[in-house]
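Late entry, S-adenosylmethionine complex.
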Amino acid sequence: MTGTGRSVVAAQARAIADAWSPPGAPESWWLTAATFTTIAEDEPLLDVALARAEPARSVRGNLLDVLPDVVASLPAEALVCLVDTYVHVFLPPPDLERFDGLIAEIGRERDLEWVSVDPLVPLGPDARATVQRLDVPAARVRENRDGGVWGVIGRVGVRNGVRSDTVLGRAHPGAAWLEWR
Ligand SMILES: C[S@@+](CC[C@H](N)C(=O)[O-])C[C@H]1O[C@@H](n2cnc3c(N)ncnc32)[C@H](O)[C@@H]1O
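Prediction complete; structure with ligand written out below:
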């Protein structure tokens, strides 16, 4: 929630509280005025009011099909942030390649960040690549094979059409631990 959004809601709640408490207002109105006064002065309540006023939009569909339209619907000044936890690991190789193409395509139009937490692929004893095509040290690949599956935390960024990437760390599949590199 932005500070600006919070102050706008607070100002509106204050205005409504004032409207419900003009001089000589009937007693039955006081409750409403008090409710809005509380909202105007209560930070957590303001957050709830804001979340209700601007609910997160859910989109159903294959991510490869819906991503371009979802990104296009975002405000032009917003930095696009794609976050995926244990989703891309399920994409078959041709779909992963298609996603990579989408990142390049979107990146030609606007800046973006893609943060991923996904096991090495292909799942199983031959796993050696990340879904983001990041460089993972051979020792890590061996640990993954011998010690059980964990997720690589990685980021891909595109600025002015130029791609960069970083391995940020790794994560237990159930988030029991995170290890930053
Ligand atoms: C292991 S769950 C990850 C759940 C997610 N991280 C969460 O916390 O809710 C894998 C999810 O990936 C979704 N998924 C896999 N392939 C997809 C695709 N092509 N398009 C959209 N969702 C996909 C599945 O529907 C499933 O919900």
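Residues 3-19 form the longest helix (17 residues). Will revisit in the morning.
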